[in-house]
Amino acid sequence: MPPSAASTMTNSRSTSTTTNTADAKMVLPPQASYGPNVHISTHPVLQHKISVLRSSATDQDMFRSTLKAITYHLGYEATATLKTKEIPISVSMGSNKHPVATLADCVGAKLDDRVALIPILRSGLGMADGMMELLPKAAVHHIGMYHLPGSEAPVQYFNRLPKKCVSDIAYVVDPDIASSATMMAVIAILKKWGVEKIHVLSVVSSHHGLKTLSEAHPDVDFTVGNVDPVLTKDGLVLPGLGDVGDRLFGTHTVMEEEDEDEMLLHPSKRKRTMSNASEFQ
Predict the structure, then answer these.
(1) What are 234-251's pLDDT values in tens digits?
(2) I need a labelling partner for 130 at 20 to 30 A (CA). Which of 8, 11, 28, 66 fits?
(3) What is the DSSP string of 209-228?
(4) pTM of the complete model
(5) CA 206, 209, 212: angle at the middle one, nearest 5?
């Protein structure tokens, strides 16, 4: 990105953030206003962990582990409606001398739904491990989306959905929902794919984004950890989580395009140097 464009973006975003931060105290409507397909967690442990995730004092390692823990808790709530089937099991009573005589038979339960996990690249990768720990036999299909500068319409650049859908339910994971444009596109892709049920998990969503999604897709379920009131004109959720991708993968600095001949030179002798990622936020 040209320096002038980066500077313009920085100025517009910083101005927007300053203008809208005061609005972050606005009162949000009750959960019922989003419809029966939306669940907003009120668990105190989850709210504590989301606060840790938001904090600028949280380093990269803690951010990753906290996001994984939050995902596990959100996933636990979101999977409450999965179907199970009865299976016979034997329970050991603790003696090795007479193993047959010390077994107790009972009826257990086994998950019957075929589950697909859909992380939206790249920040959705931070939620994948938590969901895979909860559902170790789930299939994982990645979808990558990005936004062109000056356009609200997302562009798909990666799709690992198999041609034939054999899943009963797809859990889409993305840490934050802003304008909802990306999630709208992914839901449309999954419906065209043919999966019967779709459930979206997000740590934080803007009020605008969640309301737009729930009204447009009343047949899709949503589980979110928190709803934030402000969506800036630049598409930022406030107070939000910051740039999740950067905080997950430590990409706060990016390398500008360099001449191949300069790559072997010491950075201090190159024509171009490192640029702070904040210029692009």
Answers:
(1) 888 899 998 888 898 888
(2) 28
(3) HHHHHHHH-TTSEEEEEEEE
(4) 0.76
(5) 145
